[in-house]
Design goal:
This is Uricase. With 315 residues, the protein is α+β, with helices and mostly antiparallel strands. It is 23% helix and 31% strand. The protein folds into two domains: 16-153, Urate Oxidase (Roll), CATH 3.10.270.10; 160-315, Urate Oxidase (Roll), CATH 3.10.270. It has helices at residues 51-55, 65-79, 84-98, 121-124, 215-232, 238-252, and strands spanning 23-31, 34-48, 102-112, 114-116, 136-138, 143-150, 155-168, 193-203, 256-265, 268-270, 285-287, 293-300. Helix 2 (65-79) packs across helix 3 and helix 5 packs antiparallel against helix 6 (238-252). The structure holds uric acid.
């Protein structure tokens, strides 16, 4: 029997990245008696000349993940945290420009919001001179997100939010849809529309510090437009509402070229109260948690490219 010798099939290293994930950094800024908090969860992911650490175990090009963690905390002290975006841009630039072996940095940030606890009537307004302003309550607000990617020449800034839960108790219909032999859904002329918004928006900023958006202002305005579009759209479907939310952001925020949403349709079913001799005039609902419709789409400025990943859980 002939023996066929096969050349060894080469095994190649593919895409790789490394860094320290979920650095929980809280920065307190003390402005006299008035304190300010930034509460972030920062994940660093670096890539570059990392073949040898995988192939031979040489660590000669590896900046330890422990160092990347230390850098996050040191930067919080040295430069402060004006915004999640600004902080992440600073970190990304540092890793790529300070280490020859690192060619690309991706910094992801989750931000948690804290509200001031009002200790008197005055505390709710501007701080009085002797007013202690150092007590906070973690807000039930959504989680704010940003992801910065820098490869030494081009920047990509994608910000957004998750877990923003909203509901309209009327001005929502759903009818006129395709029906086949499995369709049982009754047409709705007045239903609840509720969702837990996960959204991302991509900035057209190209790296010029002088032309950087006011990141805090941009976030608050974008959130406001999104909420107003949800509230003001008379909805014939969650798809239509999604489009209006994205379009309103693109129309009003020149710094944003692309918006993507992932919207679970949080179904609210009218409860049949007839067995109890009661009518239900759109008053009592069963809030189902699963299964849920899942409506996802990108809304783009005309002529712009879609770059936000289709699956937002990958971002
Ligand atoms: O807004 C909706 N869009 C759908 O595609 C859909 N499908 C469904 O069963 N209910 C709804 N609601």
């Amino acid at each position: 029997m002939a023996v066929h010798s096969q050349p060894a099939r080469p095994v190649m290293l593919g895409q790789n990245q490394y860094g320290k994930a979920e650095n929980r950094v809280v920065r307190v800024t003390r402005d006299g008696a008035t304190h300010h908090i930034k509460d972030l969860n920062v994940s660093v992911s670096l890539s570059g000349d990392m073949d040898e650490v995988h192939y031979s175990g040489s660590n000669a090009t590896v900046l330890p993940t422990d160092t990347t963690k230390n850098t996050v905390f040191a930067f919080a002290k040295e430069y402060g945290i004006d915004s999640a975006e600004q902080f992440a841009i600073h970190l990304a630039r540092h890793f790529v420009t300070s280490q020859e072996s690192i060619h690309r940095a991706r910094i992801r940030v989750e931000e948690y919001t804290w509200d001031r606890i009002a200790t008197s009537e005055a505390a709710a307004g501007p701080a009085g001179p002797d007013e202690p302003r150092h007590s906070f309550v973690r807000s039930g607000r959504e989680t704010r997100l940003t992801q910065i990617t820098y490869d030494g020449s081009s920047w990509e800034v994608v910000s957004g939010l998750k877990d923003l839960v909203v509901m309209n108790t009327t001005d929502s219909e759903f009818w006129g849809y395709v029906k086949d032999r499995y369709t049982t859904l009754p047409e709705a002329r007045d239903r609840i529309l509720a969702t837990q918004v996960s959204g991302r928006w991509r900035f057209n900023w190209t790296g010029d510090e002088q032309k950087a958006p006011d990141w805090e202002e941009s976030y608050e305005q974008t959130r406001t437009h999104l909420l107003r579009a949800f509230a003001e759209t008379y909805s014939l479907s969650l798809q239509q509402t999604l489009y209006r939310m994205g379009a309103r952001i693109i129309d009003h925020r020149a710094e944003i070229d692309e918006v993507r949403f992932s919207l679970p349709n949080k179904h609210h079913f009218l409860v049949d109260l007839e067995p109890f001799g009661l009518t239900n005039d759109n008053e009592v609902y069963f809030a189902a948690d699963r299964p849920y419709g899942l409506i996802e789409a990108t809304v783009l400025r005309d002529g712009c490219e879609a770059r936000i990943p289709v699956d937002l859980s990958n971002l």
